[in-house]
Amino acid sequence: MIPALVTPRLRLRPLEPGDAAALFALFSEPRILRAASHPRWGAPADARDYVDALCAGTLRGSVAPWAVDLDAARCIGMVTLWFLGEGRTRAELSYLLASAYWGRGLGVEAVAAVLEWAGAAGIARVEASVDVDNAPSLRLLARLGFAADGAPWRRVRSDGLVRRAQRLVRPAAAAVAPEALS
């Protein structure tokens, strides 16, 4: 089981089935869909299936998904680590935040908390794949010590949309500089 993580403004808690409706709303936002790795879900049942799969993956130890809560606002986003290979020493990072909360440093705060947990859990390397046109996400990762790994490549979503993506990497054990959080 993954632990709840608390930051000065956020509470990250293990994703649960009750978060499906909030995630369906998040993945319905056009601004989020522009950078998402999958197309819009067709129905709330798609979100329920996704959350159920993540919860099952958590029990198997293959994924660690957190819902991001801000005060009384539940599930304003999520941060997920997808474990790669044997031994859980590498992970792929994904994250999203409702666009109403962008520009406040909450994404940096949430991802930094998960990176701190990853380092303590023995994950040696964290990777992220980001659309090259997603400048805010590239800035967020750079603030947290990620660097480009190789050249951008073409990524094709299941709906046929073609995007250019960049892989970024970071040693999980690297400390987050205090100025990155301000």
UniProtKB/TrEMBL annotation:
<dbReference type="InterPro" id="IPR000182">
    <property type="entry name" value="GNAT_dom"/>
</dbReference>
<protein>
    <submittedName>
        <fullName>GNAT family N-acetyltransferase</fullName>
    </submittedName>
</protein>
<feature type="domain" description="N-acetyltransferase">
    <location>
        <begin position="10"/>
        <end position="173"/>
    </location>
</feature>
<dbReference type="InterPro" id="IPR016181">
    <property type="entry name" value="Acyl_CoA_acyltransferase"/>
</dbReference>
<dbReference type="InterPro" id="IPR051531">
    <property type="entry name" value="N-acetyltransferase"/>
</dbReference>
<dbReference type="GO" id="GO:0016747">
    <property type="term" value="F:acyltransferase activity, transferring groups other than amino-acyl groups"/>
</dbReference>
<dbReference type="Pfam" id="PF13302">
    <property type="entry name" value="Acetyltransf_3"/>
</dbReference>
